[in-house]
Amino acid sequence: MLLLPSLVMILLLYAYPILLTIIQSFHKVNLLNSEMTFIGLENYLTIFKDPGFFTTLNITFKYTAITVLMKIGFGFALAFLLFQGLYLKKAFRFLILIPWAIPQVAVSTLWIWILDGNYGYLNYYLQKLGLIKDNIAFLSNPDSAFFAAAAVDTWLGISLISMMFLTGLEAIPRELYEACAMDGASKFRQFTTITLPGIKKVFLTTFILVAIWTFNSFNVIYVLTQGGPMRATETLVIRIYQEAFSRFDLGLSATLTVVAVVILMICTFIYMKRTNYEEL
User: Fold this and answer.
1) How is domain 52-233 classified at the architecture level of CATH?
2) In this structure, which of 161, 204, 224, 269 has its CB flanked by the most CB atoms within 10 Å?
């Protein structure tokens, strides 16, 4: 009885929307009039017959892979640096968390100004340094817009990821490093035999969470490019939003959502089996 209020809230906030999404994926639902017409698997057939869906899927996987690698790489490097005996280490930890604490929409808006093709700060300083002669339209070119969105997403995610890795590093007993040093092991040997095995569980959990978060990344891409230019940054989550609120087809949007969830579940399961999650 004491748990009943929490259970009801969970069912209302999570179970009901999930069930409604699955039901809507088998219907033709118009956002304007809220009419639902049962059409069976037609939405799923429409998706898999559409070449644009596979293009969107390719962009999503490419964006996720690049961004996750940068987040994990820079996040671990920063965590390892903070793990060392730095002066004012606590102050640096506080400053590093600032990008994560600021709302993503606000940060993305600031990055629009920085990356502006005419008056952006990035173009200004690149010209001052003599690295470029003419302004670069970072958000107007398909290739540069894709990597710009990935870079901003990475910049936002590094803070939290570094703190997660830092927590794992600090959980490793210091005595192991002292004993290893007494045996004459080098810093690199300590890193490969103590540090890497010690954060194996943290790395696995962080990788899965970051991959899911990045796959579902919406705020950064939508504020920066809204899926453009020429749909170069239209990931699956952006496509889901566009189908629902630009084309008013909630049925197709729900179908894409179900497909996205299934893809994430399959990828997570495969990764966990490949890394022998049960033995960690």
Assistant:
1) Orthogonal Bundle (1.10)
2) 161
